[in-house]
Amino acid sequence: MKYVLTIFVFLASLGGGNAQERPNIVLLFADDAGYADFGFQGSKIMKTPHLDALARRSVRCKQAYVSDPTCGPSRAGLMTGMYQQRFGYEENNVPGFMSKNSAADGIEMGLPLDQKTMGQYLQSRGYKTAFYGKWHLGGADRFHPTKRGFDEFYGFRGGARDYFPYSSTPREVQNKLEEGFGHFQEHDGYLTDVLAEKAVQFIEENKDQPFFIFLSFNAVHTPMDAKKEDLQQFPNLKGNRQKVAAMTLALDRASGLVLDQLAALGLDKNTLVVFTNDNGGPTDKNASSNYPLSGTKSNHLEGGIRVPFLMSWPGVLKENTAYSHPVSTMDLLPTFFEAAGGDADSLLQLDGVNLLPFVKGDQKARPHQRLFWKKDARAVVRDGDWKLIRYPDRPAELYNIEDDERELNNLAAVYPEKVRKLYKLIFQWESTLERPRWLLKRKFENVDIDRMDAYRDQSKFFQKERK
After folding, report:
1. Whole-angstrom Cα distance, residue 423 to residue 107?
2. What is the pLDDT of residues 282-340, one digit of tens each?
3. What is the mean pLDDT of the chain?
4. Do residue 175 and residue 310 come from a single domain?
5. Are residues 302 and 398 both part of a single domain?
6. How many domains is the chain partitioned into structurally?
7. Please, which residues bridge with residue 274 across strands?
8. Are 155 and 283 found together in one domain?
């Protein structure tokens, strides 16, 4: 009897009670999607019926931010719940883009092993964990998802690859499609669909225990690969705009497949589902739209760092509502940990916060009074509704986001004292950070600035689609 009681207490400590009381957690994560390119975000062009239906069951966070406007650092912030600059992960993790003077090159770069991941936190709560799709947190074996908190993995280690199977296995390990650890084999069909099918299978196999799925689509990142039948759904579009619409349709279909499986098994009532994206859309690369926001991926205008964000948890979060205060994808780790029966307040080293009391309306204050961003000499602080952007090639700019979310009215000359105050806040925050572990080649700073200037006002490109 003594041993039975001990086992009961242990199981209760894992989940705060019966395993069935802990929600399943599913994170649907898009890649390089435009802020405006979903029906629930106001698009009249894109066809996203499944995600639109999810939005009607969700809290939609209207000011959701990533911790960086590029893929690798953004994922590092999300996966650890903290500013990735705290452990030197300041610049992108893409072999070939790095300076040869970097501390490490190629696949030797990755999420430092001393950083605990979202998967590891949820494993500690007794969850079965799976990661599907784009990893982009290190190509070397020691950075592998199955060694960083995920029981199952199907996807690729790098930042991009074709959606259709390669005719021969790629030479570089980060581009190979992999199941588990070290088993490389190309898929059949279209990768976006295949990733969802793997997630559906995992749900079936683990329906009797709490699970966490990180479904990290590479859609709609380049290359612009789309199925012929999906392209035919958009006969009035051309070029990459037609392709990104078709790829978004596939992303929606794949998300729907997962959501339908949850419903078919009766798991949807006890599943926390989040849909979001890794950074703003790179309009010049995949024709994605961030309208009405200015800017694109890789810069710190709102179009580079603000993303769509849905949270659904039946019976806990109110359906079809909006939350207006700024939140961050860094908040997902403590939010998931709390939902899993953990104590998010015990995670003192994190920069993210548990969003549940905020989006439920129990906590009226802002989750974050301040948020920061940094990449080399460029840096940003958002303090309340004020946002200061520091540049390497021009004076700092000041915006009030509440009044001017398109960032077209620079107020730096009007409020010089505010500029000085916020400039100092950036420096004070920077003083708490680690030196970058590696650096981009200098020419890419010019590319990022040029992209920002070219796509600063996206109304020039997409306003007609909104009419």
Report:
1. 35
2. 999 999 999 999 999 999 999 999 999 999 999 999 999 999 999 999 999 999 999 99
3. 93
4. yes
5. no
6. 2
7. 27, 311
8. yes
In a domain, 9, yes or no: no
Nearest Cα neighbor of 219 from 192, 199, 186, 198 is 192
Helix 332-339 crosses helix 71-80 at what angle (to 10 degrees)? Answer: 30
Structure token digits, residue 405: 């979310």
| 208 contacts 270 by C-beta, under 8 angstroms | no
Residue type, 451: R
b/e 177-196 (16+ beta carbons within 10 angstroms → b): bbeeeeeeeebeebbbbbbb
Strand 321-323 relative to strand 59-61: parallel, antiparallel, unpaired?
parallel
Q: Determine contact, residues 357/338, Cβ cutoff 8 Å.
A: no
With respect to residue 11, please indicate whether it lies within any of the assigned structural domains: no
Q: What tokens does 394 get?
A: 């021009």
**Whether residues 386 and 296 fall in one domain:** no
> Is residue 16 included in any domain, yes or no?
no
Q: What's the pTM?
A: 0.94
Question: What is the Cα–Cα distance from 387 to 145, expressed in whole angstroms?
Answer: 36
Phi and psi at residue 193, to the nearest 5°: -65, -40
Q: How far is CA 171 from CA 98, 114, 117, 168, 288, in A?
A: 20, 29, 28, 9, 30
The token duo for 135 is 């990893």
Q: What is the CATH number of the domain that holds 155?
A: 3.40.720.10
What percent of the chain clears pLDDT 70, i.e. is strictly above it? 93
Residue 277 pairs in a beta bridge with: 30
For residue 276, the cross-strand partners are 29, 309
Alpha-carbon torsion (381, 385, 391, 395), positive or negative: negative
Structural domain containing residue 381 = 377-435
Residue 10 included in any domain: no
Query: Do 387 and 283 have their domain in common?
Result: no
Q: Please check whether residues 309 and 447 belong to one and the same domain.
A: yes
Residues 49-72 have pLDDT tens digits of: 999 999 999 999 999 999 999 999
Shared domain for 424 and 454, answered yes or no, is no
Between CA 313 and CA 315 the distance in angstroms is 6
223 with 195, same domain?
Answer: yes
